[in-house]
Amino acid sequence: MGELGAYLARPVGAEAGPGMLLLPMITGIGEQLRAWADELAGRGITALVWDPFKGRSTDNSTQDERVALLLGLDDDTALAEQVALLDHLRGELGCTKVGSIGWCLGGRFVLLLAARDHRLANVVGFHPTVPSELRPNQTHDAIADSTGITAPVMIVYPGADAAVPVADFEALQTALQSRDVGATITHFYPGADHGFTDRSRQDKAVNADAFQVSWPQALAFIDATTA
Known about the structure:
This protein is of the alpha/beta class and 227 residues long. The protein contains seven helices and seven strands; from the N terminus they run E-E-H-E-H-H-E-H-E-H-E-H-E-H. It has helices at residues 31-42, 63-71, 75-90, 105-116, 142-145, 166-177, 205-226; strands at residues 6-9, 17-23, 46-50, 95-103, 123-126, 153-160, 184-193. The protein has a seven-stranded mixed beta sheet with strand order 1-3-2-4-5-6-7, sandwiched between helices.
């Protein structure tokens, strides 16, 4: 993979089979992302995690440091890295079908990637950070671009998302449902917060409940679309 870092979790004894590309939230490749990758590997799915912050994560950096890195991310550079990881999954790692799942910033990128690379077997976005107003470092509109996705999509949205207004979630849902191909499955969890899948936010009952309901459904969706 050259200078491109990642975290790889493979099923025991697997030489080929399904794969998933994981696109992290602002935590980077921290303990929770590694646990999710390992969980997928335990289900027979090769999991490869993109490293948005070049080794920085909750393991070794502060939230403020990662926010600064986030604001410096370039869309096209990030997408090129993700395509390289997708190539690696389908090439050297021998995965027969590959999907992608993203959280927060990764939820935005999973939509951008799928709109451009139709090799993906599925798209899962947990609380994707897709406000209609782009940041200065962003060049692509994930809501508009999502109409180009051909794979089945599952979007999980928290009703109390402070980063993405409900109107923008509804715009994304409308865009996805306008497609001629690809199923659209949307979840709406009233009262849940942006980033509710993060363990640090699950001391709040509504967030923990949203995760307990949504995560098993996402795993079943991944199994159904990569089998």
